[in-house]
Design brief:
Elements: H1 7-25, E1 28-37, E2 40-48, H2 52-60, E3 73-82, H3 95-111, E4 120-130, E5 135-145
Parallel strand pairs: 3-4
Antiparallel strand pairs: 1-2, 2-3, 4-5
Length: 146
C-alpha cells in the first residue's frame, strides 16, 4: 500500500481487500475490481461460483464457453470506516450515489459485451475497522440497490 496515499484511500483499499476475502469465503468468484468511469466506480464485480449442475446445464444448452452463462453478476459497493467515525457506512449510500452506481453497472455490462438481459444485482458490504484490535465488522447487504 502506498503510504503517500490519503488516509481515506488507504482505508478504502483495506476494506475492499477484506470484502474480497469475505466474498471468496462465501463462494463468490471475483471477476473484476475498481472499474472506474468519470461518473462512478464499481468496487468489486463477482458471481457465485457455479455448481456442477450449472456446468452440466450450460453444456446441455450448448453454451459451454460462456463462463457467466446462467449466473447472476453481483456488483459490490464497499463502504469502509474506522470505528472512531460517528456515522454508519450505509449513511454514505446516498440516492445520488445509487443512481451513479446503477449507471456504471449498466455501462460495465455493455462495455464487457455481456448479455444485456442477464440477471444482476448490486450488493453493499459495510465494514467498520477497529484499528486497535485489528478486527473488522462486516455486514453484507444483498440486492440493496435497485
Amino acid at each position: 500500500m502506498e503510504h503517500n496515499q490519503p488516509k481515506h484511500l488507504q482505508t478504502g483499499k483495506i476494506g475492499e481487500d477484506i470484502a474480497c476475502d469475505f466474498l471468496k469465503k462465501k463462494g463468490y468468484k471475483i471477476i473484476d475490481r475498481n472499474f472506474k468511469r468519470k461518473w462512478g466506480e464499481i468496487d468489486i464485480v463477482c458471481h457465485k461460483k457455479r455448481t456442477l449442475s450449472d456446468k452440466i446445464s450450460s453444456i446441455w444448452n450448448k453454451n459451454p464457453d460462456s463462463v457467466l452463462h446462467g449466473t447472476k453478476i453481483v456488483f459490490v459497493e464497499v463502504k469502509t470506516l474506522n470505528s472512531n467515525y460517528s456515522l454508519d457506512p450505509e449513511d454514505n449510500l446516498t440516492q445520488q450515489k445509487q443512481k451513479k452506481l446503477i449507471r456504471t453497472c449498466q455501462l460495465y455490462i455493455s462495455e464487457k459485451k455481456l448479455d444485456p438481459d442477464m440477471d444482476w444485482q448490486i450488493d453493499a458490504i459495510l465494514i467498520i475497522l477497529d484499528t486497535q484490535s485489528k478486527k473488522a465488522k462486516i455486514k453484507h447487504m444483498e440486492g440493496v440497490i435497485y
